[in-house]
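User: Transcriptional regulator with XRE-family HTH domain, Dyadobacter arcticus:
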Amino acid sequence: MNQTMESRMRSVAMNIRKIREYRDYTQEYLAMKLGISQNAYSKIELAYTKITLERLIQIAQILEIDSVDLFKSNPEELVRLHTTK
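Assistant: Predicted structure for Transcriptional regulator with XRE-family HTH domain:
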C-alpha cells in the first residue's frame, strides 16, 4: 500500500477517535453498537484494520456525523465543526 493511502487511513481513524471522545462514547459502546468486540474496534481506531465503506457509514451514523466529514485532514477542525451544530 502506498504511503499516501496509509496516511489517509490513519487520518480517518484519528478523526473517528476524536469524534468518539468528543461525544464521550467509549470504545466498548461503539463496539457494542457495531456488533464487534472492543478489541476489533480498537484496531479500527489504530488503523490496523481496513474499514469497509459499510462499516465507515455505520460508525458515522453512531457518531452522528456525515461520513464524508471523517475524511477531513484536521481532527481539531472536525471537532470544532461539530461543536457549532
